[in-house]
């Protein structure tokens, strides 16, 4: 009997290496923000560049994994962890620096952590695939964080804050709405699995 693709593909491959690099970049990103200390100087731009590169590796490792058949069990676990570490650290650091309301950070993190835990809980009933709304949520969250990280106030004044705040508000709304949708999916998945087991009993 042949092994599954995930078993045949070596864990040490370019897609997984990029995922690990993204995880390693998280403390570097945090250090740049701490070193800048709200001065919007060189370290702030280095933090922006690090965040941008990390986000690009997220797209790149996914594209490589799918196009070259490099999907592994390690990648399935490590990739979402890397994403949440990067997004979560950015939100927390922005709140610590007083540039983002804590309630926004808390709402987004509670949703992300809660949905991740829920996925593991209901995995016995089936896998919840990422929805279009979930993918849109990730894009809007990333854009909002990137706008908050960019030191644009000196160029655009209050307009920079309003633009960033508007995109972040959209990110919060999409985050909450898609979170509710995933909860409903989990309920339907569980109910469907129980119905199947009841009919087969």
From TrEMBL:
The keyword Manganese does not apply. NCBIfam families: pgsA. GO terms for molecular function: CDP-diacylglycerol-glycerol-3-phosphate 3-phosphatidyltransferase activity. Keywords: Lipid biosynthesis, Lipid metabolism, Membrane, Phospholipid biosynthesis, Phospholipid metabolism, Transferase, Transmembrane, Transmembrane helix. It comes from Arthrobacter gallicola. Belongs to the CDP-alcohol phosphatidyltransferase class-I family. It is an enzyme of class 2 (transferase). It is a multi-pass membrane protein. Its EC number is 2.7.8.5. It is found in: Membrane. This is CDP-diacylglycerol--glycerol-3-phosphate 3-phosphatidyltransferase. It holds the Pfam family CDP-OH_P_transf. The chain crosses the membrane at residues 12-34, 100-122, 134-153, 159-184.
